[in-house]
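Before a colleague's protein record goes any further, I have to sign it off. I want your independent view on whether this chain really folds as the tokens say. The record follows directly below this note.
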Amino acid sequence: MAYTSGGMVDLPGFFADLVRCETRLYNALNDRLREGHGIVTSQFEFLRFLRDRPGARVADLAAEFAVGVGATSKGIDRLEKQGWVVRQPNPSDRRSSILALTPDGSKLVDEAETTFTEGLAALIGGTLDGSSASSAARAMAQLRSVLELNQIGTPTG
């Protein structure tokens, strides 16, 4: 556990708890999304990002998810092969493309959103009450904001 008897936070323990929770939640959602929709969590997140941010580029996805541009582009290639995403010419920069969901991609992400949201509620809802969930959400948002502002953990490629 990440707490000591004196109320101090055991930071290595906190890190371990954080990473193990993220991994277990991600894997559990992966299973639900694969079973219900034939996609995995990373694909769902890419599709949802593109739905919610029209006009996004591969670089925008890479920045949001702190993943290398090459790996992100390969992920988009897989979504494109499935017919869920298309690359369109970027009128303001010929070196990049604008990514857009196809009608099938839009339908898939909308349907998968229910599975994802219900899965999160089932996995987290019974463990954290309203105030502890709110506190955890605020703490994670604050930590993420600082890491992103200072470009900590940003891939170089």
Remarks:
- The helical segments are 11-37, 41-52, 58-65, 69-81, 103-124, 130-149.
- The two ends are 35 Å apart (CA to CA).
- Residues 77 and 85 are 9 Å apart (CA to CA).
